[in-house]
Amino acid sequence: MNAPVSTSMPRALPAEHRERLLGIAREVSFPQGARIFEEGGHADRFWIIRTGTVELDMRVPGRRAAVIESLGHNELVGWSWLYSPHIWHLGAEAASPLRAYEFDAAAVRSMCQSDPEFGRSIARWVGEVVAHRLQAARVRLLDLYAPYGSGTVH
């Protein structure tokens, strides 16, 4: 049996890669209710949450946006910056006052290109986050819109 995969940045990246990434971070904050990014917008940055929570949402035609997942301490907000065409697949809103590390996507992609080992670590981490978010979105949408829900016990 495989151990559960961690999508939290401190556990997902080797220490030297984590320190290198944090070396280019900029500290930012958002008030509760602030939109961090919109589905379909240009993904030119990403964040790691220090304090607070972020709700990821998905547009649903004819309905309010569906909240897919809530993220907290040390979690990655945004993965679309790594994969072309660099367009957000979800939206994000600060569910509480938020403090985060912000990263310039072009700078991190350049670091990944110039150091293949660093690039593999980032790609593996972000890929694990994408897989986790895809499953969370599937379960949440089934809970909201399927006739009998996802069938999972909560």
Number of structurally distinct domains: 1
The proportion of residues forming helix, as a percent range, comes to: 25-40%
Largest sheet: 4 strands, antiparallel
Task: Name the strands of the widest sheet in spatial order.
Answer: 1-8-3-6
Q: Determine the strand fraction and express it as a percent band.
A: 25-35%
First-residue to last-residue Cα separation: 23 Å
CATH topology: Jelly Rolls
Weakly predicted, low-confidence segments? 1-5
SS-based structural class? alpha+beta
Average predicted confidence as pLDDT: 88
Number of helices: 4
Radius of gyration: 16 Å
Please report the first level of CATH classification, the CATH class: Mainly Beta
Write the H/E string, N to C: HHEEEEEEEEHH
Number of strands: 8
The CATH architecture: Sandwich
CATH superfamily grouping: Jelly Rolls
Indicate the overall shape. Answer: globular
